[in-house]
């Protein structure tokens, strides 16, 4: 509570960023994020709670940090934020040229192929971040998630009340999918290749006799592919992108088997 109070006061009065106790408080929050003891957003029953004050600390971390040169072997970077370290101690596999910034949390068993994880992100146990996947600032990724090659999880820092992109436990995200603007992917959902979902995207369940529509939210175990619908404009009618729920993972089988079944039965490319 003491940290939160200092952060809230500094957010309202930026002159406090010059004071040492404010600087120490902001850096303490970033350290807690790095170790996974604090999160920008966390589960709250069936929903998620956004910790706005933590996002405020991340935003205020940038102005208190000086630019510096970071040398890693023959490579050189010039930035305000250090790179994450101690991967062996954390139990995280990091393949060159994967990069995670200090202030991002990577749990035990995470695998980072050449990819990027930004400050404030939370990547839970056993998750695969595949080649050229990007986990944006403050994105929340659950346990045993697979982010396929080229997946883009959007970062959300401002506005501070906005929910980050959330991928819940066991989800499979197909290649080149783009999930941004605080959208939420439910547990064990399967997102096919090339699906784009924003916080306001139409996600239409077409498995029943009548379509059922969601906005920016994919229910648990849903199997999703790219789609489109017709929308009227002053210039005429045109096709607008959406996402289609075309099936479900079966609860009766384990995750690996149900994933294979879901892909095979619904002909979903990943």
TrEMBL record:
Keywords: Acyltransferase, Amino-acid biosynthesis, Diaminopimelate biosynthesis, Lysine biosynthesis, Repeat, Transferase
GO MF term (any one): acyltransferase activity
Keyword RNA-binding carried by entry: no
Signal peptide positions on this chain: none
Entry keyword Protease: no
Superkingdom in the source lineage: Bacteria
Swiss-Prot/TrEMBL GO biological process terms: diaminopimelate biosynthetic process; lysine biosynthetic process
InterPro entries membership: Hexapep, Hexapep_transf_CS, THP_succinylTrfase_dom1, THP_succinylTrfase_N_sf, Trans_hexapeptide_repeat, Trimer_LpxA-like_sf
Domain (Tetrahydrodipicolinate-N-succinyltransferase chain A): residue spans on this chain: 3-64
Family statement drawn from the similarity comment of this UniProt entry: Belongs to the transferase hexapeptide repeat family.
Protein name: 2,3,4,5-tetrahydropyridine-2-carboxylate N-succinyltransferase
Organism: Pontibacter indicus
């Amino acid at each position: 509570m003491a940290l939160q109070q200092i952060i809230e006061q500094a957010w309202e009065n930026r002159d406090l960023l010059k004071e040492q106790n404010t600087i120490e408080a902001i850096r303490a929050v970033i350290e807690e994020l790095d170790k996974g003891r604090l999160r920008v957003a966390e589960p709250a029953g069936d929903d998620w709670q956004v910790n706005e004050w933590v996002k405020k600390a991340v935003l205020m971390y940038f102005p208190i940090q000086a630019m510096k040169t970071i040398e890693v072997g023959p490579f050189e970077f010039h930035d305000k934020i250090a790179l994450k370290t101690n991967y062996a101690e954390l139990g995280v596999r990091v393949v060159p040229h994967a990069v995670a910034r200090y202030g991002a949390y990577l749990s035990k068993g995470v695998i980072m192929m050449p990819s990027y994880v930004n400050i404030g992100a939370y990547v839970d146990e056993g998750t695969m971040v595949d080649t050229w996947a990007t986990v944006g600032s403050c994105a929340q990724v659950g346990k045993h998630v697979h982010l396929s090659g080229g997946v883009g999880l959007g970062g959300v820092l401002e506005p501070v009340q906005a929910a980050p992109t959330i991928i819940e436990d066991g989800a499979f995200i197909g290649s080149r999918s783009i999930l941004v603007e605080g959208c939420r992917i439910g547990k064990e959902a399967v997102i096919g290749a090339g699906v784009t979902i924003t916080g306001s995207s139409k996600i239409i369940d077409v498995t029943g006799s009548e379509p059922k529509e969601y906005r920016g939210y994919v229910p648990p175990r849903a199997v999703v592919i790219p789609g489109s619908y017709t929308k009227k404009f002053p210039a005429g009618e045109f096709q607008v992108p959406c996402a289609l729920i075309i099936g479900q993972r079966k609860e009766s089988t384990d995750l690996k088997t149900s994933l294979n079944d879901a892909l095979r039965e619904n002909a979903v490319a990943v």
